[in-house]
Amino acid sequence: MILCDKDLRGYIGKGWLKIEPLYSDTIQQNGVDLRIGNQIGITRKALGTYDMKRSEAEDFFRVMNIPPDGTEIEPMSSLLLHTEEKISLPPDLMAMCGLRSTIARMGFVAPATYVDAGFSGQLTIEVFWSKPYRVRLYKGIRFLHVIFAKTSDVVENPYRGSYQGQSGVKLPKTLLGE
């Protein structure tokens, strides 16, 4: 079951779902809109092969703060954004993330991103700017739409992975040992 605005207000009011800060325009009809946080992860120029089991993400990404006057994104480029808001999900709620329609119509593309029951922290989302011209990006813009779905029961193993509690842009972990 996907939660509607009334359900979301109820979950937040009871403290089961936390969204901080919570703005007056956050809760939408069937989800919430979250804002771009103060950091961005930019892909560095090719430095060789990215080895999913051995490479250090810092060798391939540069994390920087977004200045008040915004930052320019190069044409056809991939970046990591994080949400200004911190969310905390109870053990019976998961989430699905997608770009707001307006942001997608401008030319941004993002793969489906899922948030496990029990997750707490800011979300880091990969976004691709698909146009052949630059775009200026600003912190605080509502960019991400998050839909919450109730699981059939409380999960036995709430999320406790390496992204738990993340703040700012969190670079990908290596897959060594998987």
CATH topology (level 3) name: Deoxyuridine 5'-Triphosphate Nucleotidohydrolase, Chain A
Helix count equals: 2
Tell me the distance between the termini: 32 Å
Which of globular, elongated, flat, extended, rod-shaped describes the shape?
globular
For the record, the CATH architecture stands as: Distorted Sandwich
Structural class: mainly beta
Biggest sheet: strands, sense, closure? 10 strands, antiparallel
What is the CATH level 1 assignment? Mainly Beta
Mean pLDDT: 95
Q: What is the number of E strands?
A: 12
Tally of domains = 1
Task: From the alpha carbons, calculate the radius of gyration and give it in angstroms.
Answer: 17 Å
Range of helix content:
under 10%
Any idea what the CATH superfamily is called? Answer: Deoxyuridine triphosphatase (dUTPase)
Which regions contain 5 or more consecutive residues with pLDDT less than 50? Answer: none
Give, in order, the helices and strands.
Answer: HEEEEEEEHEEEEE
Beta-strand level of the residues, as a percent range?
Answer: 35-45%
Give a brief outline of the structure.
This protein is mainly β and 178 residues long. The protein has two helices and twelve strands; from the N terminus they run αβββββββαβββββ. The mean pLDDT is 95.
Brief descriptors of the model:
178 residues; mainly beta; Deoxyuridine 5'-Triphosphate Nucleotidohydrolase, Chain A; 10-stranded antiparallel beta sheet; two-stranded antiparallel ribbon; 2 helices; 40% strand; globular
Describe this structure in words.
By secondary structure, the protein is mostly beta strands. Helix content is 8%, strand content 40%. The strands form 2 sheets. Strands 1, 2, 3, 4, 6, 7, 8, 9, 10 and 12 form a 10-stranded antiparallel sheet that branches. The chain has a two-stranded antiparallel sheet with strand order 5-11. The protein has a single domain, classed as Deoxyuridine triphosphatase (dUTPase) (Deoxyuridine 5'-Triphosphate Nucleotidohydrolase, Chain A, Distorted Sandwich). It is built from 2 helices and 12 strands.
